[in-house]
Design a protein that fits this description.
mainly alpha; 8 helices
Length: about 210
């Protein structure tokens, strides 16, 4: 027993020494990036999948739990693979060129995005749309910082909010099929189901009546 504990301590010490070696830092960063991608993907997807599944999907409890697990695994796996690919390509480019330059990040992320997120499925679609909205905001701010467009005299956010909501509700009302399924479900719940009720039970307590009255 004591011998086993001693070997474990020796192994931990050796691992800690390895982690401090500067020459292995790039490779170790790739491994930790894979770990962080997997953990972060699970943390982000699990609560989202839990809420959306129980709110909008039908089926047995087992089927719902299976859907949550599958969505969480897919998000966690893809993010882990992407971070691993991105960090690995960044390390290779930096090693080959002797330094890190801005284009390295763009090229590594493009290749990673193509390889990992290139399949058009609900999980990847949600991630890409999430990133796209933040990219548009980021590029707008960068354009102002670089002087490509003038600094607005007033906060443009109210106008952006008005245009976004106006556009998305117009699409929902007249071109619903162009919106992502989860967004369609959310908007149906908010804007269509709120027009249907039979008595106090499905007016205040429930969204829809489950009995056959």
């Amino acid at each position: 027993m004591a011998g086993g504990e001693g070997r474990l301590r020796a192994l931990l010490r050796a691992a800690n020494v390895l982690l401090q070696q500067r020459r292995y830092r790039a490779a170790l960063a790739v491994i930790k990036g894979f770990r962080n991608g997997a953990v972060y993907g699970a943390k982000i997807r699990a609560p989202h999948a839990l809420v959306m599944t129980f709110l909008f999907k039908s089926g047995s409890l087992r089927e719902k739990l299976k859907a949550i697990a599958q969505a969480t695994y897919a998000h966690s796996r893809n993010l882990a693979y992407f971070v691993f690919t991105y960090k690995g390509l960044m390390a290779v480019q930096s090693r080959l060129q002797g330094k890190k330059i801005p284009f390295h990040a763009f090229l590594a992320a493009c290749l990673g995005g193509w390889l990992v997120f290139g399949e058009n499925n609900p999980i990847n679609s949600q991630i890409i749309m999430y990133l796209l909205s933040r990219i548009l905001f980021g590029l707008s701010r960068l354009a102002v910082e670089k002087g490509y467009i003038p600094q607005p005299k007033q906060d443009p956010f109210p106008l952006v909010a008005a245009l976004v909501w106006g556009t998305v509700l117009w699409l929902f009302e007249y071109h619903r099929e162009t919106l992502q399924p989860s967004l369609q479900s959310s908007m149906t719940y908010l804007y269509e189901d709120s027009e249907v009720w039979h008595d106090l039970s499905d007016f205040l307590l429930y969204n829809k009546r489950t009995d056959s009255k």
